[in-house]
Design the sequence.
């Protein structure tokens, strides 16, 4: 079965530094991978989507890479700010027909001033 | 606010009672999804609709769970004979199949259920 792994340990980082999160998956070749942000008590918010033919995608201070050989995506937050503190989830569509997302367990990021 | 809304935001019930949650998607979205999320885990897919048709249901979903989207707009999720293991956050999301960003799902704030 499809397995999506994210580092379950919280990532504590100093303001201004770059946070790097990892998402590893097995047993599937997804056409794309998504990253969401979730704040406590709220629903996930879409951040970025990267397709299998894209190596890298950027949005403001966020950067995502996608290595289909390693079956891994890296998510970077550059020049991190305390407001970036949240849980970040990666998700794959394993259905290929209906956008049925399978999520990793998420990594909590805490940016300290 | 034109985002996805869910009602109620919180629900406390006793074991054995039935509960019903409502989700109002973004108005032009034709797909609607239900997920369940427990503490420390990512959301888990339950079911989804395209317009009024329920196209897929998770095999993990007990027969006590039923969802409807009668007019292709809002949806309800009912849990019958609730059990303590049903305690979780229930998330609704919507998307526009065939649109330029059809893979993106927009989530509501969730309904947090506590079964005593």
Sequence:
């Amino acid at each position: 079965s499809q397995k999506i792994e994210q580092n379950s340990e919280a990532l504590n980082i100093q303001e201004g530094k770059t946070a790097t999160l990892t998402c590893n998956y097995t047993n599937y070749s997804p056409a794309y991978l998504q990253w969401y942000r979730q704040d406590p008590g709220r629903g996930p918010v879409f951040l970025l989507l990267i397709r299998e033919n894209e190596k890298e995608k950027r949005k403001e201070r966020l950067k995502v890479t996608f290595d289909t050989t390693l079956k891994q995506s890296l998510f970077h937050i550059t020049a991190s700010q305390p407001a970036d503190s949240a849980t970040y989830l990666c998700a794959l569509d394993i259905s290929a027909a209906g956008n049925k997302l399978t999520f990793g367990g998420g990594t909590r990021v805490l940016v300290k001033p | 606010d034109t985002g996805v809304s869910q009602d109620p935001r919180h629900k406390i019930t006793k074991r054995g009672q039935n509960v019903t949650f409502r989700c109002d998607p973004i108005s032009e979205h034709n797909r609607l999804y239900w997920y369940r999320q427990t503490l420390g885990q990512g959301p888990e897919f339950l079911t989804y609709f395209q317009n009024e048709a329920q196209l897929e249901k998770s095999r993990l979903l007990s027969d006590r769970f039923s969802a409807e989207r009668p007019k292709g707009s809002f949806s309800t999720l009912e849990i019958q004979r609730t059990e303590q293991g049903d305690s979780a956050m229930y998330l609704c999301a919507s998307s526009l199949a065939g649109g330029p960003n059809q893979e993106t799902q927009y989530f509501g704030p969730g309904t947090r259920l506590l079964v005593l």
Observations:
- The mean pLDDT of chain B is 94.
- The first strand of chain B starts at residue 5 and ends at 7.
- DSSP finds no helices and eleven strands in chain B.
- Chain B touches chain A at residues 4, 31, 33, 35, 40-45, 48, 50, 55-56, 91, 93, 95, 97, 102-110, 112 (CB under 8 Å).
